[in-house]
């Protein structure tokens, strides 16, 4: 039986996407689900809805809760102690372009490295130097990777991936979408999304 | 050892509060946590933040996801099939006043009955008749209960409870607050809030 597909939409500025990215590979393997790692940008989706930024940022009470919550979850998942990026949210454009440009086999490790740099190591992922060092740490020693990621064709691919997310009803990150279009929002729904994808594949 | 206290803030218009109210008593008993059932109104808190309504209502994509999500969770929890109140959100003022007016021993059963009427039976909980029948079903056969709930003193109590919630940082429902002020937002965090309350009590 072929493994079940599941789209994993994530934005590099999203703390809950970090938590999901740290967990999804092991859980998907156990559930025999094949993850399509899909970096996208939440900014244009928020803007189209008339939000200046995420409600997690614009509501101070929600913001206080979010950091306490993400800190507790990082501990629960045995991740390194959470470090809050400052400023927040960071500009995730460059990281998203590079992640998209890498092939499917390399994207997950790069994605996890970016998130860890951002939320556990206090590094600035909007900085080209940081991205270069993260790539080098994964064996991509050519600065050309970044140049290629910033070519118009790749920029357009990221724009199209963001538009596809919006068209499927994505309004936040992380979001998981199964083959039947069922949409699951949030790190909290990762397990449920995997269950759904697996059941779909079995019923097929 | 005394059981650990945990405040449970809920709004009768909130579907996720319904899910938490259906689960909390059994889970709290298992965790030896004493729940303070605290009905309040989200409306004035949203208004103070400049939101016309809940983001679950104002964003159509979020709204579609919410109903799919609550429907799936109701099934997962073995609750009756979810029925979407129409209109939504309902006016939860009368139900909140009556819930607050009842004593601590009667409030949980009334709360669950209201939520079930609203989200599983398609009944209008803004209607005085509905509330009267729910009360009668629980053995409160006196229409005076509703009259008393609408006295100025009780109205003021509900206002004070809402203000207390806001002052503690409540921005959504359900919200759980432990004795040390730690705040947990959402039905998804019920188990974590209970764990926290229990650990606090053991450390004391």
UniProtKB/TrEMBL annotation, chains A, B:
Q: Cite the SUPFAM superfamilies for this sequence.
A: Thioredoxin-like
Q: What is its EC number?
A: 5.99.1.4
Which Gene3D superfamilies does this one have?
Glutaredoxin
**Which terms are listed as keywords in the entry?**
Isomerase
Query: Which reactions does this protein catalyse?
Result: 2-hydroxychromene-2-carboxylate = (3E)-4-(2-hydroxyphenyl)-2-oxobut-3-enoate
Instruction: Tell me any Pfam family this protein matches.
Output: DSBA
Q: Which residues form a coiled coil?
A: none
**DSBA-like thioredoxin domain ranges (all copies):** 6-195
Out of the domains of life, which is the source? Bacteria
GO biological process: one example = naphthalene catabolic process
Query: Which residues are responsible for catalysis?
Result: 14 (nucleophile)
**What protein family is recorded?**
Belongs to the GST superfamily. NadH family.
Q: What is this protein called?
A: 2-hydroxychromene-2-carboxylate isomerase
**Which lineage is the organism of this entry classified under, starting from the top rank?**
Bacteria, Pseudomonadati, Pseudomonadota, Alphaproteobacteria, Hyphomicrobiales
